[in-house]
Amino acid sequence: MVVINLSRGWPNPALLPTAALATASATVLASPTIWQPALQYGPDEGFQPLREHIAHWLATFYQLRCPLSPDRICITGGASQNIACILQVFTDPLYTRNVWVVAPTYHLAGRIFDDSGFAGRLRAVPQGATGLDLNYLRQELVAAEDKAHREQNLAPKVKPARPWTKIYKHVIYATPTFSNPSTLTMSLSDREQLLRLAREFDALIITDDVYDFLQWSSDPTGKETQPEHALLPRIVDIDRYLDGGPSDEWGNAISNGSFSKLIGAGMRTGWAEGTEKLAYGLSQTGSSRSGGAPSQFSASMVAQLFPTRILQNYIAHVLQPAYAARYHRMMCAINEHLVPQGVTPTVPKGTAGGYFIWLRLPASLRATKLAVLARREHELEVAPGNMFQVQGDPVAEKNDFDDGMRLCFAWEEEADLEEGVRRLGCAIRQALQER
């Protein structure tokens, strides 16, 4: 029996636009006016044509109230690399109090924060079907500020003052739309209130907006029209207009985007958006100042996908239908094999998206033990909920997800998704019998 992996959050190779990338590469290498700058270090802010294309693309998709200047865009080496760069420029490991993480969270993000000096200072902000626990966050922010004042932690201790940077007191990290792993989408009200808290307490909100373009109707009949525009404004968009706009020239939000889920993680190309001041400051990360744009050649290739709408059409006519089919096939299998055993899937209203489905297990089962059983007895890899804890948070009841499990429908072949869920059903049945 072949192992089926419903844990791996990678795009299936068949869903990558290899033909379009081959053409884009040939175009770049055939034109000296493109390949000469593309093979150099590149400007700190990134490949200018791609910045311009992204600005127009985002303005259209998010239906922005006013034009989006390319000066708000900084090309990055992808979402993970860019989080590290954001922390290098805009935080101080002693002065910045905490990193507040919407939980459950992307399980590999914690190491990035640890490496920037925040080990032991990550704190979970619970999110459930009713929304973010904003009252808890406010309470904890007040406590953190009280502690900072008692300890006279009133100015950056490590980072020198520089004209291109601001050191924030707090960092808030979230994936607001089709979150990994919970699949929840933060409401507009919660986005606005979170931003108001960030302004009040001098926090920078880092949002991984990497799944927004992968959306479809949650109606399994296929009768509903597939969405063409974003479900909700990003927090960085809200920062442009809420209560008159940003409280200063830096703002309190940065959108972390990536082409990894759209054209391939190996391209190592993404973008960040914030105020013009924030975007420029990000481009001044030491590694960018030394080496130039972190993905200059790849960015020049990606730029070729925009003028004739290759990327936009690929998302609309290949990725959205393919992922919708995979999602509905897995949901159908879940309803057949898991729901009768007491498993509850997270089912969005209206619009679904992303890569994952989050399951709530019967009260008598623990996901960590079930995952071991599924691998040992049923040749199935699944991701138990506690994999997505905020590491080091001391408030256990706010940070325990061992009643949950994440399934990914992106990596395996579509035909194997149903079989994987069937195997999980067998593992659950076995676990219930062995209680």
UniProtKB/TrEMBL annotation:
PANTHER family from the UniProt entry: AMINOTRANSFERASE, LD15494P
Aminotransferase class I/classII large domain: residues covered: 5-424
SUPFAM superfamilies referenced in this protein's UniProt entry, alphabetically: PLP-dependent transferases
Keyword Transferase: yes
Molecular function GO terms recorded: 2-aminoadipate transaminase activity; pyridoxal phosphate binding
The protein's name: Aminotransferase
InterPro entries linked: Aminotransferase_I/II_large (IPR004839), PyrdxlP-dep_Trfase (IPR015424), PyrdxlP-dep_Trfase_major (IPR015421), PyrdxlP-dep_Trfase_small (IPR015422)
Highest taxon of source: Eukaryota
Keywords: Aminotransferase, Transferase
